[in-house]
Write a structure and sequence with these properties.
about 50% helix; 434 Repressor (Amino-terminal Domain); mainly alpha
Length: about 110
Amino acid sequence: MRIHGFEKNEVIIKEIGRRVKSKRIALSITQKELASKSGVSLRTIGGFENGENISLNNLISILRVLRILQELNLFIPDVKTNPEDVLNLGHSRKRVSSVKTNRKSPWKWGDEE
C-alpha cells in the first residue's frame, strides 16, 4: 500500500509494521533474533508487525538492526540554512514567532481623513 497522507494514523502504523516485517523476512531474521539484537521485547515486535503502536525508541532500535535507520534521511530530510536568512537576520533562524504590528491608531480604510 502506498501512503498518501490522508489515511488514519492506525492505518499508517499498520503499513509501517507490515513493511518492517517484510524487511525482516527478506533478511532472514526471526522475530526472536530481532528482539534479541534490538533489545525490544518479542511481544512488542509481534504486536508492531500486526499494527500495534510502539515507542519511537523501539522503532529506532528495530530499524538499526534491519540496517534501514539511514532511510530516515528520506523520511525527514535535513533542512539547510537559507543564506538569505543569515544575511537578513545576521544568523540562521532558531524558531518562528508571530508577526506583531505596531498600530498606534485604529485601522482605517484609507479614504477617511
